[in-house]
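Good morning,

Both structures are done.
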Amino acid sequence: MSELLQLLELLRCNADALNTLTLGKVFRFVTYAARLKDDILLPQPATLSHSIAPELLPRTVIHFLSTACDISVQTTERCWSILKDLIWSSNDFAPEGSNFEACERVFLAHGHTFGLLPRSIYPSQSHCLNPNCQRNQKGLALKKAEQRQAVLYTLDNGPLPVLPLLMFKYNTERRMNYHYNFYVQGGRRVYYDDTKIPDIIQVGEHQFIERKVIELWITLMVVSWTSATNCARFYNSALSGNRKPPSGWTFGFTLDSDHVWNGFMILSLLEDLVPRKQVLSVLHTGLDQDQYKEAMQVRNRRMRLYSQPEKNQAQLIDCREM
């Protein structure tokens, strides 16, 4: 409610500058701009603090907001100048339910051309983690990026196209590539040393799944002995909403059992390691079951030695090997 009051106060104080706008257009502008914070930050100077709203919007964002809100480019720039601090400081403008679906339709209709969609997946790290990196020492954010198409499987809204999927890269003596959940260096995938388990987990090269979906699968496995194949079928038939990828999208929206198993393994390992402030490190290449085998073996040995009385049964197994 406080954000709404602040918004109304800004509109009252700038009535002359925004007198051509309807309240609906203002709310659309605030909602859409709030979804684009990462896209707004990417082309900004590397010295800019992420906690401060940029003075200027990228041209692609300006033209998208102008088209999506049915306002002129000049009005778009004026709206940003007046409302940017409120948009930047608040997390309460995210659309939900039917509002999200309406927002998604607008982004698919107008944002795809500019490389913008309502859900973006950016690495959680904005600066290089190498302490010897010169950019890191200067406090400069990572700016070299690669764009990829991907699919995000959600619980409430089904599968969603995500664009761009960015991997930040910086060439040092040993190059580090930054993905959403992890960075890659020396052939190993090292998950970020976060204090909490991420809400979205990458399970394939172009597939991401909400943690809530993976937790649902684990519940189905434990309570009703549902197989990974049937977990995938359950999502595809009951939760996907029969959504289809946009025209020209490279990847389909159908889940398979490998995505389920990868999500199960990664989440289980993170739930074991993160509370103990340990980092998950696995091979970056090879078959999925081989990538995580070493980490599963270490976890299982610890469970046998130090865990519950039922320790002989508490083992994490990739059933694809059976």
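Second structure follows.
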Amino acid sequence: MEDPRETLDYSYERQLELLQNVKRGVAEVTSSKKRLELQRVKLVQNIDKLEGQARDAVAAGREDLARLALERKAALAQQIEGIDREIADLEKQQEKLIASEKRLSTKVEIFRTRKESIKAQYSAAEAQVKINESVTGIGEEMADVGLALERAENKTEEMKARAEAIDELMEAGTLEDLTGSRDEIDRELSKISAQSNVESELARLKAESGKGPEKAKTVEEGTEERKGV
């Protein structure tokens, strides 16, 4: 997948290269104009010199030399006119290049600002996507955990219901308590033994109070003895 941040950086580098080319163009035009201006200064100096030579030749009666000096002066004047035109053209080019440089520099700066803003937004969106993906994964995992908990709770409720049902059946006598240490016979024998103990205790108490069989037998024996006497 193409990273738009890399594309933006590449476009920005290309614009910087174009801006540097324009700046070099401005520098070259400025340098060329400067050379022409220096050349023009020298030509003007030569013209002034030829003007002086022509004057001296006329004063000396040498019209031929004066004419030669003036002819050279005229040729130099034509060169100066050509240089002036070239300088004027270079000045126009310089102005255009400087204006282009300013416009391009402004565009590059605007692009740089937008580029950094877009890159920041993309990075933030990318981070948000990663976070959302992580949260989604956690949510799915928690959903699975929730289902497992729900199943465990349902099974627990089922086991509790079964335990309560078994307790009710055992209390009703429908089911034997297999967890006890004695069976039904043991329980019945225990009841008989307990009942026998109760009867023995009752007989003892009756005997002690004079209402039991032993006491009655003793009373009868005493009565018979008195009758025999």
